Amino acid sequence: MKDKSSKKIFIVAILLAAILYLPIRMYILGVPSDYHISDIKKSGDEMVITGEIIDSAKAYTRHNFRKDNSKKTLEIYGALSSFLHKSSRFEIREEIGIPMYIKDKYIDEWGNILDKKTIEIYNHKVKYIGSGSEVINLLSTIDIGKNFGEYKVVLETDEKPYVLNINLNDEIDRKDLDKKLIEMKNFGIIILQLIENADEINYNYSTDYKANSLNIKKSDYADIKITSPLDLQELIDKLEVN
Q: Which one, of 77, 57, 53, lies nearest residue 65 by Cα?
């Protein structure tokens, strides 16, 4: 009889746990929720992260840094608003030391704040301009097509200077030309720093059905050196490239 009674109690406990699991998760523990960040700043040996859950029906309950190899990623949990949890806003303090991803930001082990895309671009650096597929992957990661439309790449690598030709397919409207030339120059400065043995970039484009070209030489920017993602982020910020 005792064994049967214990078995019934166990079954009832399992059923109760199953019944209560969803309400506990929805109203107390919370579920992974999308969020936006309003501010990230360094304070002493900590990063202070403030933000808000996007779903207005949810309130912040807790957070977790999911560890993956040598980095960690912030996860925010939200539950349906109730007397238990009322605010969708949060402030999190996390010790500096392990690199972390927070939405589209990357925080390195020293607390420097970089764009996640900057890390991706830096990881696509090219040693030799003759590695055509790597050059194309770099340009794709930078996403120059977003600014200039479709383009073709032609490499001149038989002798120095080694030149990257970017031939733009879409004609540039004259009213946009000054802006586009500045963008070409700034992107070109960055690209030259990320292809180790590249010497020049030629943008070949047309305006009013006339062929034109913009040449950028690495030697004109010899004072610029990119040896880390932070160097790249500082250059991107300085040139206001996006």
A: 77
Model pTM score: 0.82
d(CA 138, CA 115): 16
**Cα–Cα nearest to 168, from 217, 215, 213:** 213
pLDDT digits (tens, 9 = 90+) for 30-65: 889 999 999 999 999 999 999 999 998 899 999 999
Q: CA triplet 82, 86, 90: central angle to 5 degrees?
A: 140
Longest dimension (CA), the chain: 96
Residue 11, pLDDT score: 58
24: three-class secondary structure by DSSP = helix
pLDDT computed for residue 24 by the predictor:
57
State phi, psi for 202 to the nearest 5 degrees.
-115, 120
Cα-based angle 85, 92, 44 (whole degrees, multiple of 5): 155
